[in-house]
Amino acid sequence: MPTDRSIVLFDLFGVIARHQRPGALGKMAARCHTPTDAFTTAYWACRPPYDAGRQSAPEYWTAVLRWLSRPVDADTIEELRRTDIDSWSRVDASMVAYVRSLREVAEVALLSNIPADHADAFLAAQPWLHDLDHVAFSGKIKAAKPAPAAFQHCVVALRAAPGDFLFVDDREENVRAARAVGMNGHVFTGREELAAVIGAWLPERAVLTSGRPRPGPGSRRRRRRRGAPADPA
């Protein structure tokens, strides 16, 4: 059962951060002296263990290069790794501002499929992440959406009930998975629509079943707020 808490749980890429930089896959393919289509297939086919923290960056890139029957060497791997991290580094400034503003009325958390080394780079470049109530990166928690374990991690970490959450993601399959574990869900298509959905969801939760107004979210957040994103080994 839900409690008296309201937690908006955001996906990162395609919601707050932008999708991969255009041309990045072609640039990495050229470094491997292989066609972009073939590189793209290898890049995504080998990705799930890397996203879920079951492979290191060198292990992932070794798998990609072997898929493509290309030589494996440390310099190539490091160049590909750095180019890849940069390709996923852009954020939507208006969404960052909106997410930060939500902390006045709700708890705000993040659940993203992202390898551990990408997560470290993102945390270093985006200090606002440290102000959220919880941050869960798949490469750090060893579970990637849409696996139930990824959502359950957030429930446990925040000591909440699944019904306390509104999960926001741009991928329908991830939203379906969140709903399957008991969360509320919304498929993101734009900030204005999202603001309307959240604006409707919060008032619905403003009164407990007893009819008594609940405490303001700011007071709860001051008690529960974590100073930095969790990194459960």
Structure report:
By secondary structure, the chain is of the alpha/beta class. It has twelve helices and five strands. It has helices at about 25-30, 35-45, 45-50, 55-65, 75-85, 95-100, 115-125, 140, 150-155, 170-180, 190-205, 215-225; strands at about 5-10, 105-110, 135, 165-170, 185. The chain has a five-stranded parallel β-sheet, sandwiched between helices. The chain is elongated and about 55 Å long. The protein starts with 6 loop residues before the first strand and ends in a 9-residue tail after the last helix.
Task: Detail the topology: elements first, then pairings.
Layout: E1 7-10, H1 24-31, H2 36-45, H3 47-51, H4 57-67, H5 74-87, H6 93-102, E2 107-112, H7 116-125, E3 134-137, H8 138-141, H9 148-157, E4 165-169, H10 172-180, E5 184-187, H11 191-204, H12 217-224
Parallel strand pairs: 1-2, 1-4, 2-3, 4-5
